[in-house]
Structure formats: structure tokens, C-alpha cells
Amino acid sequence: MLWFVPLLPLLAALVIHGVGKRWPGDDRGRAVLTLAGVAITVATLLLVSIAVTADWGGTYRWSSRIVLSLGMTSTSAVFAIVVPLIAAPIIVYSAYHEASPVSGRETVRPPVGLVALLTAFVGAMELLVLAEDFVTLLIAWELVGACSWALIAHEWQKAGNLRDAAWAFLVTRFGDLGLYIAAAAAFAGTGSFAFADLAQLDGWRLDVFVAGVVLAAAAKSAQVPFSPWLFAAMSGPTPVSALLHAATMVAAGIYLVIRLHAELSAVAWFAPVAITLGMATALAGGVVACLQDHAKKLLAASTSAQYGLMWLAAGAGFPGVALVHFVTHAFTKAALFLAAGIAERHVGSYSLNAMRLGRLLPGVAAAAMVASLALAGVVPLSAAWSKEKIVTAAGHQASWLAVIAAVAGGLSALYATRFQLLAFGRGRQDRTSTASSRSGHSRAEAISLYLLAAGTLALSLLWWPGVGNSLADLLSVHFPKTRPWELIVSLLLVAMGVGLGIWATRREVSRQQSEKRAGMADWLGLPTLTARGADAVLMFSHGLARFDDRAVDAGIRGSARFGAWLARLGERRGEGAFDGATIQLAKGVDWAGQVVRRAHTGQMHHYYTGIAAGLAAILIILSIGALL
User: What is the pTM assigned to this prediction?
Assistant: First the structure.
């Protein structure tokens, strides 16, 4: 029965894509598309809820050794619920925010293809989080990668979109190799692909397994050095960015770490590697976000940083904390991306210096402020609770690690404040007038944003006494007990970050970024270093090619020339020599035949004489043998 959960949105996406082209290209068509998309996501959510309470499962025997299986754990249940919850308002938003022009006319039609792909994305992610074996997981992993490529390249007519989609796909694809390596190591060590048999892994196979999972998860969740692919993914439409960052593509990496944490933590080196990756990404992503002037790229760098904090919590031994931070971050980040899309429609650009739409969009600004304050870690909002738990979890490893996690939280406060004040602060009157002259946003887009902001507020109940403990019991996880000094330091750094964000915003000017700052804002120059590394590899490859042409191929070309010379020699002289030898051989055979034929006279006494001579020769040979 559990197969219905992923199959429903996957099959419904095909139906929407096939039937939706016949829907009218006006508000009625958008309404039908919205209802179809929301109905599918709500139905998926209901199926997940029933599956959790009824303990559904699902298996399909592919062969005697390969069995595809689905199951429900506390981790997969949380992800399976959050994905459609986040997807529903995003689909509503996309139906009204995006539009496809009808060729030859000025009218536009509803984005049927985009909504269909978003729905399929939901189904692929549901299959991923419910998988109980590596074959099923790999199928879902490939579907998620394919959907993300198609969504990023959705507006393929725009220059550079296909290149950016390919870049994001290839980077994550490189990480995907790790999952295949992990699956092979699991099968070699246990004879099975099932997660339930991973406890049998030991020795070097366990190390290979963990290394493969870490590679795949780090690439998917945009950890350093894979982080820059998120900037390439910003070429996709705003709803794509919202779903990809909040609950699907990027979330797949941290899901794998949380789901397989028991097996990963069995290797001694996993904890320091996960902590190092998470810490480095949280700090680097925070700095990049603080320097960014592109609204979506600021949020993208923030996503990488926040998932870095989740890695830090998992490495510190508290995957439950990472799980809760995923939930709070999903609502927060989805809301901020939708707000950025609305702002862009009013000013025609994602440049933060061109916005400041607080006077024009007070409702949107208020909803964005809720999400921004939560991202900043301001008490008592939802993400602040999970962020403080991450700081405490880091403190269980070392006090200095808690301080670094708190510093990363301070950076979150700084860039969240910058985003809010630059995007929805109060700007000059001329900017507001220019923005109001452009096409604005629909009520459906605003409602989608309000729903996500309301979800952020609802999750703030985590601060209510006893709610955290009840949640820990429900999820069968353990939350660390907050230490007073860690909370004080963390809140002070949040306040400092907010203050620095206000100061930085006041000094912000509407001019081109300096080349140095632009390089720092582009992931601290990591893409440039990557490009230089690629150029070095290409130069080395060209050198090897030249060596191959001049050295290796020289012997082959010499052999070819020698063969051609032999052919020409044979053509000139060899043919006569070989023909002459053949003629002489034929003459010799003819002469021997004539000699032999002379003995056949037909007279009996000639035959008797030959027999007698033969017997005499035999007697002579035997006599000589006897004497010797």
C-alpha cells in the first residue's frame, strides 16, 4: 500500500501535463491547474498520514537477490509529511507567478509543464525518503536529479539556463557516484541491498560504505566544496528554488545522513568529517550570504550554511536536532524565496539594492519579516529553537565548537537582517513609484507566502515548556539539554548580527560591486579556483595528447609505413618471385608423377621384382640392426 504515496504524484504529473494543455489560458485555467496541483499534494499528505498510523509497507521482488521495499521510520515520516506541506503553497504560487507565452499571441497560458514537474518532484522525493533498500533509493535518487535538471532548465530559452542546469546536474552527479559505491560495498559485505542488513557491515567495506554516503550526501546538500552549484540552480524559476532548497533536492543529502546515522557513526572518522564539513560550510555560506546583493543567491548561500549546521548536529551525535532544524528551515526558506520572487516582479530584478518595497508591499514585508527573524534565530521563533539546540549539540563535543556554531548563528542574523531591510525596508519615494508602475503579484501568491509564514509561527510552539520533550518522545530521538552560557553567548551573537546587519544596510549604496567583493560573494572565489583546476587538468590532458601523437603514435605510424613499403615491394617484385616458385613446384610435381607412372607397366614380373627388392632391403636393414 505504501507504493501509492510516491506513485500518486508521479502518475498525476503525467496526467496534468497531458490534459492541462487543453485548459483555458486565462484565470479559469490557472484556477483549475491550482486545484489539480493542490489536490494531488493534499491527497499525498493524507496518504502519508494514513501510512504512519496504519504502519503501511511495500515490497516488490525484482529477482531472488533484489527486492524493492518501502518503509516508514520516524525520520522518513517527518520528511514525507513536510514535502507535500511545503509543496502545496509553492504549487499555488507557481500557477499564478509563472506564465508561458502562447506563440503568435500576446496572451499567456498557465504553467502546466512547471506544475507537472513540481508534482513529479514531490513523488520522486517521497520515493526517496520511503526507500528501505539501496536499489529503490538509487532509482529515487536518479529521479530527483532528473527532475531538478528539468526544473532548473525550465526556461531554456533564456541564455545560460541550460548551461547552469548542466553545471548543477554534473556537480551533484559526481557526488552520486558515492551512493553507487556505498551500495556496492553494502552488497559485497552483506549480500543484500536492504538497510536492515547494514548492521552486518564491518572492516574496510564499512569504511568504503560510509565514504560513499558522505560523498553523495555532501554533494546533494551543497556542502563545501560542492556549494557553488546552488548558485547555478538559481537560474530556475522562483518556485523551483523554493521547493528545491526547502524540502527536496538539497534536503535529500541531510536525509541520508540522518536516516543512516547509526551505520555512519559506527566509523570513528565520520563524526570529525561531518563536523568539519558542516562547520566550514556554515561559516563560508554565512560570509558569502553577507556579501551577496542578489536576493536569490543570498538565500541560496544561506541554505548551504543552514544545512551545514544540520551536518554539524549530526556529526555531534544528535541527528534528531538536525531533523527538527530541517523542518523549521523548510518553512522559513520557502517563504523567503516566494517573497523574493514577488519583489522581483515589482522591480524587474533580483538586485537587493533595487528593492526596498516595505511601503509598497506591507503585507508581504510583514510575512517576510517573520521568516527573516526566524532565520536570524530571534527568540521565540521556530528556527531559533532548533538553532540553539545545534549550538548545545556542538557544545557536547567541545566548548569551542559551540562558540563557532554560535558565530555561524550570528552570521545568519546578519544576512537575514540585510535581506529583510534591503528587500522590504522603507526606500526612497522614487523607487516605490517605479516599482508600483510594474506588474505586481496576485492574491494567490501572497496567500502562499502567508501560509508558509503561518507555519513558521506555528512551529514557534517548540519554545513552549514541555513541547520539545514531547516531540523527542514522539520521534524517538534525544535532544541535548541547553547550557545557560551557551544560550547567552548565542543570543548575544544574534543580537550583534542583527545590529551589524542594520549598520551594513545603512551603508549600502546602489552601485556596482567591487571586483574583490564580487569574487568573495561568489563562494569566496571557489568557482574560479575550480575553473583554474579544470584548466590545469585540460592543459595536462592536451600535453598527454601531444605526447601520444608524437611518441606513442610515432611507432604505430612507423609500422604502418613499413607495411605499406612491404606491400609496394611485393607488388613490384614479390608477385613474379612467388609466381616463378609456384611454376617450378608444379614442374617438379609433374616430373615426379611421370617417374612414378613409369613403374606402372602392367607386367607381373616387374611387380614381383619390386617386391623382392623391397624384401631384400628390409632384410639388410634388420641384419644391420642385429649386428649393432
Answer: 0.83
pLDDT at 528 over 70: no
pLDDT at 612: 79
- Whose grid coordinates read 500518486? 8
| Residue 19: predicted pLDDT | 86
Map residue 155 onto helix, strand or coil: coil
- Residue 456 has which C-alpha cell? 513558521
Pairing of strands 108-109, 100-101: antiparallel
Residue 442 pLDDT level (bands cut at 50, 70, 90): confident
Mean pLDDT of the chain: 86
All three cell numbers of 33, joined, read: 491547474
Least confident of 109-113, 513-517, 547-551: 513-517
End-to-end Cα, the chain, rounded Å: 98
Express each pLDDT in 332-348 by its tens digit.
Answer: 999 999 999 999 988 88
What's CA 383's distance to the chain center, in Å? Answer: 24
**Count of H helices and E strands in the chain?**
26, 4
Q: Which residue has the higher pLDDT, 607 or 478?
A: 478
What pLDDT, on the 0 to 100 scale, is given for residue 102? Answer: 41
373-408 pLDDT tens trace: 999 999 999 999 999 999 999 999 999 999 999 999
Eight-class DSSP state of 69 = E
Residue recorded with cell 553545471: 167
Residues 6+ apart with CB under 8 A from 481: 392
Q: Which residues of 36-74 are buried (b: 16+ CB within 10 A; e: fewer)?
A: bbbebbebbbebbeebbeeebebeeeeeeebbbbbbbbe
Looking at residue 230, its amino acid is: L
239: cell is: 518556485
Q: Grid coordinates standing for 283?
A: 561559516
| pLDDT score at 27 | 73
Q: Which single residue is written with the C-alpha cell 542574523?
A: 413
Cβ atoms 310, 328 nearer than 8 A: no
Contact 142, 252 (CB under 8 A): no
Taking the CA atoms of 23, 241, 358 and 450 in sequence, report the sign of the dihedral they define: positive
Look at residue 224 and give its three-state secondary structure.
coil
Q: Which three cell numbers stand for residue 608?
A: 614381383
- Residue 383: CB partners within 8 Å, gap ≥ 6? 325, 328, 329, 332, 374, 375, 377, 456
> What's the rounded mean pLDDT across residues 264-268?
93
* Residue 61 β-bridge partners: 67
* Nearest to 353, CA basis, from 265, 427, 413: 427
Q: What's the grid cell of residue 593? A: 608423377
70 DSSP β-pair partners: 58, 131
pLDDT at 76 over 70: yes
Which segments of 292-398 does DSSP mark as H helices, in order?
Answer: 295-315, 319-347, 362-376, 382-395
The cell numbers describing 19, all together, are 490534459
Sign of the CA dihedral with 307 first, then 313, 319, and 324 last: negative
Residue 43 grid cell: 491527497
How many residues are listed for the chain in this entry?
A: 628
Cα 235 to Cα 101: distance, rounded to the nearest angstrom: 19
* Residue 512 confidence (pLDDT): 54
Distance (Å, rounded) from C-alpha 562 to C-alpha 567? 9
The single-letter code of the amino acid at 510 is S
